[in-house]
Amino acid sequence: MSNDGLAAALQHLDHLAAMPSASERVAEVLRQQIVGGAIRSGTRLTEETISARIGFSRNTIREAFGMLVAERLAVREPHRGVFVATPSRGDIQDLYATRQLIEPAALEFGPGCSPEAVAQLRAIVVAAREGRDAGRPEAVAEANQRFHLAVARMGRSVRADQLMLGVLTEMRLVFHLMDDDRRFHEPYLERNAAIVDLLEQDRRPEAAAALREYLADAERQLVEALDTDWADRARRS
Amino acid sequence: MSNDGLAAALQHLDHLAAMPSASERVAEVLRQQIVGGAIRSGTRLTEETISARIGFSRNTIREAFGMLVAERLAVREPHRGVFVATPSRGDIQDLYATRQLIEPAALEFGPGCSPEAVAQLRAIVVAAREGRDAGRPEAVAEANQRFHLAVARMGRSVRADQLMLGVLTEMRLVFHLMDDDRRFHEPYLERNAAIVDLLEQDRRPEAAAALREYLADAERQLVEALDTDWADRARRS
DNA sequence: ATTGCCATATTGTTCCACAATCCTCTAGTG
DNA sequence: CACTAGAGGATTGTGGAACAATATGGCAAT
Hints:
Oligomer: homodimer
Low-confidence stretches of chain A: 1-16
């Protein structure tokens, strides 16, 4: 207790040296494959197969599966296995209900809505525009995710942040369900910009209201797009 | 596809027959002991000890530990073990930041704020008053938890609900930190009642504002109480 | 087409082993 | 006396094998 400073410094080194456990590394690999689209929704993840493929024991794989299930990226069906989650319409509605609850509240009442935070939002919008003009829709999507995460962070609650991170990660799964997910975010770029405009004028309630409409429109468009996709798929089979 | 009704009914039976896995049962036992105060904050949970005590293998215990850690009821220190969480001041502030973000938003904008939902809140307040008048502060605390969970449910988001359930569970850990946690909730009972009054008059913005003040006061009182507790404990040692 | 049954595969769980890491205690050193 | 170094013991992290419980799919019988 004599010198907290040294302890803090060592803690820092600790953090640098912190090697994630095997199960966390396995979970991270699978996570990337899932949200990156390399493993499609509905795919069965067999313990032995994964174990053989990436060289960790079944025990470790099971632990990793547990994490993915806890994050809702996968679903466990008892005695059947774990499958990459396929978000249902209900899931999408719930995801947007969560966002409707948290994001506008963070905008309007979040204690972290500082000028620096607004400037960061502005920077993200600028980056998104560059991505759009450069013909890189992936950059636009990524910027959009960063934007909404930054909005949530204005609530200054790590627990809510974590929830929002999980929600936005699940959203990536949703986008992979669509036949054409590349240009989905483009129309919303300028609406993000409008929200930043309002924030720069300290009109937080209006910004929150704009975000609420934004989210409702996005949900509508997403559900409609997926309905036609689902109809197509049903017709094909 | 000929009869969804039957399928739904079978799904229901499935659910009734669903026996939780061993690790979930172990986690549930430990959860109850922790939030009930039988295992105090900071206690080390040794894999072998627990394994021997409740008769499941170390592997299963480890899985259960993972769940508790994911719920923040326990903390894992690599190569040292898992310990029952002891919420810090930062944790308390974060818990209340989360509540400030979600609960008032659910009150003001939640699509689940139906007359029935308000009536349920009213019933909870009545039950809390009975508990208070019967000299059962535990009943008051439990009703208070139910109240705020019901508020959150107005957001109609199972993901946010789950977060709030976790937050309220963590709050129980916080209360166990106090020397006197029995009568903490009593002063807030009538403020809950006032919020229900406003809701019954469809004055949702005012109800949300009242809840925001409520939460800020509760946080202040809690941090102060714990500060003196911490000071006492430091002085004693 | 539906039912009943059996073979097979996968999961859920246990048990054991062992390396890696942390804690404690002792002995030595200045 | 304070402090460092290191040995010893305990616990976790991970691997691997085994087995029971359960789901799947095919085949036969009605």
